[in-house]
Amino acid sequence: MLHLLWRSLIVSLVITILTVTSPALAATSKVLPIPQPEFKGKIGITYKDSKPDFPQPITAPAKAPNVLLVILDDVGFGQASTFGGPVETPHLTRLAETGLRYNQFHTTALCSPTRAALLTGRNHHSVNTGVVEELATGYPGYTTILPKSAATVAEVLRQNGYNTAAFGKWHNTPDYETSAAGPFDRWPTGLGFEYFYGFLGGDTNQWSPALVENTKRVEKPANNPDYHLTPDLVDHAIAWIRNQQSIAPDKPFFTYLATGATHAPHHAPKAWIDKYKGKFDQGWDKLREEIFARQKQLGVIPANAQLTPRPQELPAWDSLSVEQKKLSAHMAEVFAGFLAHTDYEIGRLIDAVAQLGELDNTLVIYVVGDNGASAEGGLTGTVNELKFFNGVPENFPQLLASYDDLGSPKTFNHFPAAWAWAVNTPFQWTKQIASHFGGTRNPLVISWGEGIKDRGGIRSQFHHVIDIAPTILEVTGITAPKEVNGVKQQQIEGTSLVYSFDNPDAPSTRETQYFEMLGNRAIYDRGWVAAARHGRLPWERTVKGDFDTDAWELYNIAEDFSEANNLAQENPDKLEKLQKLFFKEARNHQVLPLDDRVIDRFDVKIRPSVTAGRTNFTYYPGVFGIPEGSAPNLKNRSFSITANVEIPETGAEGILLTQGGRFAGWSFFLEDGKPTYIYNYANAVRYIIQSPEKLPAGKSTLRFDFDYDGGSVGAGGTGKLFINQQQVAEGRIEKTIAYRLALDETFDVGRDTGTPVVDTYQVPFAFTGNLQQVSLELK
User: Where does the UniProt annotation place the signal sequence (predicted)?
Assistant: First the structure.
């Protein structure tokens, strides 16, 4: 009995000591904001007989490190040289050599869902983000409205004494809430980041991005002819960290950098593209074999791993013509240059932190992709991604004609699906396909100075993106709060990776994990995976399959790293058990109902909007940057635009109203004083309706009427131009955009803030007369 008492006392003493000395175990407030302490001074009659007790600023736990969280976009497991890929990533490798490489880390298979899970530590459906913002529906797991009950790790760190900032791609604000009218509580600055510089949507033109600073739309620097988004993001991140450390060097920072790379459009400086000339001439089949061999040499896959075969839906490289091979290889060169350029820029950020003497005191978590490489470019690739979303076909001569423009501002390009499959080596499939690791297995590198002893080590514990937030909390010594800003918090569903830092052989603490995206689904449980790929391929717009007929596969990944051997027929009992477990997890995490629709869900009319129910709109000069989800929806209907202008004696030119840009859109403007309406049908054809005469000096009312043919979506119509109620021009617009005019371009009044709808003018092409107002009527 005495022995047991002494043992109990010793254990209690050890726990007490650890709690006092270890930031990871020290408890912080479970209620945020941290309640202000009671006044402990003395109140007398005057200050002379009183004693002050000033409230002290909240400080982070002792020795809490800085945190740098980096995530790339659409990068395959076998893309970076750090994990055996063909693209040189020396700066990622440098981090891996001072830290750890994780080779069984997983994402959700799509952009917004991965980011929501990353920042909250909860599964994507649990935080209402089962799909990207642009496809949101009115089911609990799919509204894309991050709940107040799932505070981001940024909010938790901010309220525990950190400075916080985010740079780059956000993609976690509902599409219809991204205008200047807000609301702003689901913008980065409303979700824990004190500063934000980047873009809100799913992708953006790297040469002409749709930029936001905090809650204000801003334009790219006008004095840099070589402007590219990635260096701009890194410049802003470096400047913010330097300012923060100069002013408050004892206060830790949390910096979140999410690049647009390597999501389409694949935009990179020509010098970086040229570095990879000829590097992909061997084709995707041979490249996959080369990557696989390097992965084994590096030890990032097991020696007994098998290379999975090419799906029958993808063509063999040898089946392509000489010209097709030439174009496809160049598309891969552009893609490679994009990632190599990104690695260089992130290296600049790492160097800047090192120059401050803070790198060893910074937990660097580098997630190499928010999903696998993307097959959304289709079998041939594309020079305009908007054609895919709107079902506009491209033929090979059109693609080949853009050969020299790939990667430049003249294209919104994406490479062929087979390249995505190749750089997802050794796994099956690609982005969107959450049933297989080609869609969900991404490299992870973690570096933390002396906090990681096994430098250059490899970790093979099974983990998921929801595990990053609890890892950050454990390292910083911050307790996951039970209540934030008056709202009770959902349980964090992730589990920390810290246990693996010093123990490469520790069993994984994540025993079960579901996966689901667009109907593709899988369940992992204690070394086994059951998977069901749904019928639609990533580049297809319509669904071919039925949920009831999807074939389930079974893999023992404890012995079969790459999911090469389907054991469904050999072990039907195990498969049935896992299928039941999937549906149990699905019900627990708001996954149901399963929904495989894509094009239907792109329709902005199915979501709330500030334009809902309105048919008349009035806009004034200076209004710009209205995203498509908050702008009047002119697609598939008749409408009228009226502009009240005053023209000086010297004449005028410029934009009256525009939406979209070079890759799809329309513009109503004065060209050489002549009222002009141009409709850009996916950069394939432009319909021009122009007055033969210039506007006279003085006040005029201009109107453009569009009479839609109807009958089907994307139909044509007749456009008419009027000056002071007199018709001056008429023309046919044979085809219109059916579903989505832009992914990043906006609705602008009096100027064009993106790319030009037609290259006869240069942005911003601001109106040089007096534009009093523009009104718009939907019919």
Answer: 1-26
